[in-house]
């Protein structure tokens, strides 16, 4: 069973296979030496764990998700990707947040997917410069393009074409999975 402590870094660590191997080597070595009771090794390995967590945070802070290189032809698995913390505020004073989880490295046909969360408060108005799709995971989100207004609930799918100006709001909160024809934010 995986501890919640490690959940937020799963997607980040998987973004860089070398970092992932290093991180798990450090964690494995730490727990092996901890069981052996070697205090000097424990101190050194605790410092290495702090550096490993820092590297994971640096990758996350830079890319906001895992970029899959175009030449990669293997399946990309992001364990608990749907539980990625959504904490990047889209606009000051508006309770709307977005974080990428994964994206392609294809410059000709990019695609990026992530989580969008909105809470009660001022609405978010967003002008799309790419095609985008949202799938409501939980709660409800009100979407308006100025012509029509719909309340998206769990299981609903919405398409926003490039050039659409959409107003997002909610009566309480909502969470959606979003995929857009764009590079990682």
What CATH architecture label of the largest domain applies? Sandwich
Structural classification: alpha+beta
Query: How far is the N terminus from the C terminus?
Result: 32 Å
CATH top level of the largest domain?
Mainly Beta
SSE pattern: HHHEEEEEEEEE
Name of the CATH homologous superfamily of the largest domain? Jelly Rolls
User: Given the C-alpha coordinates, what overall shape results?
Assistant: globular
Number of helices, counting only DSSP H or I runs of 4 residues or more:
3
Brief characterization of the structure:
This protein has helices at 10-14, 17-36, 39-63, and strands at 66-68, 96-104, 112-119, 124-127, 132-144, 149-153, 157-160, 165-169, 173-180.
Question: Which SSEs are present, and which pair or pack?
Answer:
Layout: H1 10-14, H2 17-36, H3 39-63, E1 66-68, E2 96-104, E3 112-119, E4 124-127, E5 132-144, E6 149-153, E7 157-160, E8 165-169, E9 173-180
Parallel strand pairs: 1-2
Antiparallel strand pairs: 2-3, 3-9, 4-8, 5-6, 5-7, 5-8, 5-9
Helix pairs in contact: 2-3
What features would you describe in this structure?
The chain folds into 2 domains: 4-63; 81-180, Jelly Rolls (Sandwich), CATH 2.60.120. The protein is 27% helix and 32% strand. The protein has 3 helices and 9 strands. Strands 1, 2, 3, 4, 5, 6, 7, 8 and 9 form a 9-stranded mixed sheet that branches. The chain is globular and about 45 Å long. Residues 1-35 and 39-63 have low confidence and may be disordered.
């Amino acid at each position: 069973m995986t501890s919640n402590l490690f959940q937020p870094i799963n997607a980040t660590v998987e973004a860089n296979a070398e970092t992932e191997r290093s991180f798990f080597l450090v964690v494995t070595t730490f727990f092996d030496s901890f069981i052996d009771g070697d205090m000097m090794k424990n101190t050194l390995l605790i410092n290495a764990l702090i550096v490993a967590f820092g590297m994971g945070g640096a990758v996350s802070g830079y890319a906001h998700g895992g970029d899959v290189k175009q030449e990669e032809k293997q399946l990309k698995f992001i364990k608990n990707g749907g539980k990625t913390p959504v904490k990047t505020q889209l606009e000051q004073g508006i309770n709307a947040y977005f974080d990428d989880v994964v994206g392609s490295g294809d410059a000709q046909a990019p695609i990026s997917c992530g989580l969008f969360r909105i809470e009660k408060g001022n609405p978010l108005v967003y002008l799309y410069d790419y095609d985008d799709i949202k799938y409501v995971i939980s709660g409800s989100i009100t979407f308006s393009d100025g012509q029509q207004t719909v309340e998206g609930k769990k299981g609903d799918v919405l398409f926003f074409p490039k050039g659409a100006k959409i107003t997002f709001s909610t009566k309480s909160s909502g969470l959606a999975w979003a995929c857009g024809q764009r590079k990682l934010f």
